[in-house]
Amino acid sequence: MTKHDPAADDRRPGGRPVRCQGPYGRPGDAADCPDPARFEVVRYRRPALAVCPVHLGPSLLMAGDVLWPPQVSLVR
User: Fold this and answer.
1) CA 49 to chain CA centroid, nearest Å
2) pLDDT computed for residue 53 by the predictor
3) pLDDT for the residue 1
4) Between the CA of residue 54 and those of 6, 25, 27, 36, 51, what are the distances in Å?
5) Number of domains into which the chain is organized
6) Which of 9, 16, 75 is nearest to 41 (CA)?
7) Contacts of 64 by beta carbon, 8 Å cutoff, 6+ apart
8) CA 61 to chain centre
9) Domain-embedded: residue 16
């Protein structure tokens, strides 16, 4: 049985858009980007980091536990 992922519900057509969590992906890191996320960056043993195009590059360099080479997917 898989765990429920509420963020996956938001990515479904008609769901509310996911907000950018970049560039660091830590709760309370004062990065309140209002833009919708367009990419997901896969991280080691952590949830994927949803980021906007502006924060994609910085998140690859500064976010914790990002896989290398990076694995980035498009969020619609």
Assistant:
1) 2
2) 95
3) 43
4) 24, 14, 19, 11, 8
5) 1
6) 75
7) 24, 25, 26, 43, 46
8) 14
9) yes
Residue 22: predicted pLDDT: 80
Tokens for 11? Answer: 């990515």
Instruction: Classify 9 as helix, strand or coil.
Output: helix
- The burial class, CB within 10 Å (0-12 / 13-18 / 19+), for 58 is middle
**Does any domain span residue 31?**
yes
Give CA–CA dist 66/51, Å, rounded: 13
Tell me how long the chain is: 76
**What is the distance between the alpha carbons of residues 48 and 39, in angstroms, rounded to a whole number?**
10
Residue 43's domain comprises: 1-48
Per-residue pLDDT tens over the stretch 11-70: 555 667 788 988 887 766 656 788 999 999 999 999 999 999 999 999 999 988 999 999
Does the pTM of the predicted model rise above 0.90? no
Eight-state DSSP code of residue 40: E
Give a yes or no: residue 71 inside a domain.
no
